[in-house]
Structures are given as C-alpha cells and as structure tokens.
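thread: overnight batch results

M.L. [08:02]
morning all. the overnight job finished for the chain we discussed friday. pasting input first so we're all looking at the same thing
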Amino acid sequence: MTNPLGPKFDQAPPSIQGPYSVPFPERLPRKRNRMPLFAGLIGLVLTVGTAAVLWPWSAEGDSAAATAAEFTPTAHDHDPSTRIAGVVHKDFPAGVHVLATQRVAYTQSPPFGGPHDASWAPCTGVVYKQAIRSENAVHSLEHGAVWITYNPSSLDADSQAVLRNEVVGKPYMLISPYPGLDTPVSLQSWGHQLKLSDPRDPRITQFIVALRQNQYTYPEVGASCDNPTIDPNSPPAFDAGAPGPDAVPETQTLTTAPTVAPEPPPPAPEPPPAPLDPPPPPPDAPPPPDPAAVP
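M.L. [08:03]
and the structure it wrote out:
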C-alpha cells in the first residue's frame, strides 16, 4: 500500500519522523490456509483405517491360497492329508449296502467307511440340526463328501457357527451334531478321520481341501450329493445304542457275504393228517355176519 504523502515517506526511518509525519501502516500477519493440512491428516487417517480393516482379509486370503497350494491333490500327490497331523487313515470295502432297518457294527465313532445304507444323506452344503443315522452319512462319504460332526455338549453357539460356515453353500459338505462324541469336533471323509478340540483349528480347512471330492481317495467318483428321497429337515434318526448281534460286520464285502440280510426260508409244509380209525359200532347193533357161515 502506498503512503498518501508520496513514495518517499514509505518506510521512513524513525529519525526523520516528527509530529507531522504520517506513521507507516503496520503490516498484519498473513493468515495461513490450514485446509490442505486438515485434508492431509484426514487422508492419512482414512488410509491407516482402511489398511487396518483390509489387512486381516488380505492375510486370510494369503493363508487360504497357501493352504490350497499345499493340500490340493494332484496326479503326483494323491493324498495330501498324509501331511496333516492327527489324520487317521483306514481302508474299507466299498459298495456294500444294508437295509434301512439294519445296523452296521462300526468300530469307529463317528464311522468313516464300510457298509452303509443304500440311500445317502444329502450333502450339498447341508446343515443338519439333529443327529443323523450313521449308515446314511457313510454313504455320503462314499460319494466324496466331508462330514463334520461336533459334540453339542462341548461347543457353544459361536463355535458351532464357526463350523457351519465351513459347510453352508459348499457342495459335498454336511454337518450334524453327534451326541457322545469323545472330542468337540471330528471330520470324516471316506477312509479318513481327524478329531480336534478347537473349531478354529487350521487343520479343518486343510482336511477339506485335501479330501473333499479327492478322486484318488473315495470310491464313487462323480456320484451326486443330491437325494430327494431324504428330507434334511427330517432325516433318518440317529441311534446311539450299541448294534445288536444281527448287525452287519464293518468288514463285510460284496464277495464274502450278501449285501443285505437274506429272506427267511419258507415254512416247512405241515405233515398230512393221520388216517382216522372207523368208529366203534353202537352197543345195540347186531353183530356183523360171520363170513364163514355164508353158504
């Protein structure tokens, strides 16, 4: 701003200022624009917050990718579950069916192979609210499914929900409570079992990746998990009792025994009735003629 008395009075030294001099106007401090600073801070906070939210998802994705790479079966690695600690493997005869009224004398609980019902439990990502008949579930394993079981007395609702998330909407998966289970969690595929105490154990995912529809480990490759003859809301009931003496042995095969109980033989025909003696004559009847007296 120019001094109204002329340029020479601008910034005049104090020694020449007198009573008639006009004071030089005081310069006001320039106001700083803090909006860029605020915008930068907000952007930084949003960046850090977004990273904090997305990092667990990214880490989870990396973990899933690593699990898939390590445990997916290939032509050179038929059974990656051999590298999972705690997995039990056992060979069973396949294709052996029993009647809906029969029991199988399974030696494992839950069973994971052997003779089974001719009708399989639906295994299209089905969550069963009640325990299901073992003979139906084992047939699902023969089709390549993974059956997750849990002890409802050992896991709270949150833990059960964690397990259900492994099943819902996923083909060749089923889950059901299993009363009396000796561990909180047990996973079954055909010929394989893994018992665990923690529903968040990473071996659950490893087991599923390694064995669900693993064409090298289950008998009926390509078989369906759909079964409209069984209602998932009302499946065949679980029987906690011990199998009776007429139960089908777990080791029964198609060549060593019939697949179902034989029909009982027809009853033997009744013997013909014995011939009846002629009735005695009445007391007042005349005696029969003597054949010798006839001329």
